[in-house]
Amino acid sequence: MPEAQETAVYTHGHHESVLRSHTWRTAANSAAYLLGSLKPHMKVLDIGCGPGTITADLAELVPDGHVTGVDRAPGVLEQARATAVGRGLANVDFAVADVHALDYPDDTFCVVHAHQVLQHVGDPVRALREMRRVTRPGGFIAARDADYAAMTWYPSVPGLDDWLDLYERVARAGGGEPDAGRRLKAWARAAGLTDVTATAGTWTFTTPEERAWWSGLWADRTLVSAYAERATAGGHATPDQLRAVSEAWREWGRHQDGWFAVLHGEILCRKEA
Ligand SMILES: C[S@@+](CC[C@H](N)C(=O)[O-])C[C@H]1O[C@@H](n2cnc3c(N)ncnc32)[C@H](O)[C@@H]1O
Fold this sequence. Notes:
Keywords: Methyltransferase, Transferase. The protein has helices at 16-22, 27-30, 32-35, 53-61, 74-86, 124-133, 158-173, 184-190, 208-224, 226-233, 239-254, and strands at residues 43-47, 66-71, 92-96, 109-115, 135-146, 152-154, 195-205, 259-270. By secondary structure, the protein is of the alpha/beta class. The chain has a single domain, classed as Rossmann fold. Helix 4 links the parallel strand 1 (43-47) and strand 2. Helix 9 (208-224) crosses helix 10 and helix 9 (208-224) runs antiparallel to helix 11. It is globular. It binds S-adenosylmethionine (SAM).
């Protein structure tokens, strides 16, 4: 087994304002590029599963198989277990693990999946090598990550430019790469994967409900999450600057013409048989 290595700080933490976003996620809205490759009997590893809503969907899609959700943060796994129990799923379990050093033998899983994780790790190429190692020959390695610099919105609210600049600085100071989406293909090739299908996928937030939800969770996250603490503790922003960014989010959310698109890179890689 490879030795564990110190990884990046997880920028967001697991405050309620962060989990409000994660628990909205489904296999359909976050892993559509993978779904056509799933078969009912498959054994799946979901890395960085967070509160486990995507994990639970994957378990429903492999009713004769099994899904293991792993995350480096033990606390959020309690919520993931509760999600699975609440949905009556018997073919899913959870464990603490670091993607850089997975405690599974070679060739264990049919599918190894990571959604919004590689942008937060210290060594994404090593992580992908490890994902490849535990995948069976002929199996799939699937990853999807946002690309912050490629996010776009309307109307122009100057404080949101400050948000993007601040977020990117805080994420990089923690050892992550917020513009991961565009790099996934390169990271996969550097990890030795040769059969790589690279695509892009989006989330769009524009209805009154979507704008209220998306702007509200970022307005709150900017003031009270681990990300907010890292921003001030690291000298990236003052509390007044955070309040201004938070208010910019609320201003955007109130705009009836508001439209926000989140671009993600996606890779679906087949391990050579
Ligand atoms: C943005 S959340 C994504 C959660 C879930 N996949 C989703 O999309 O809803 C990233 C998750 O990856 C976990 N994580 C960060 N670094 C990790 C690492 N090195 N190994 C395993 N999990 C990690 C974090 O604790 C967090 O729960």
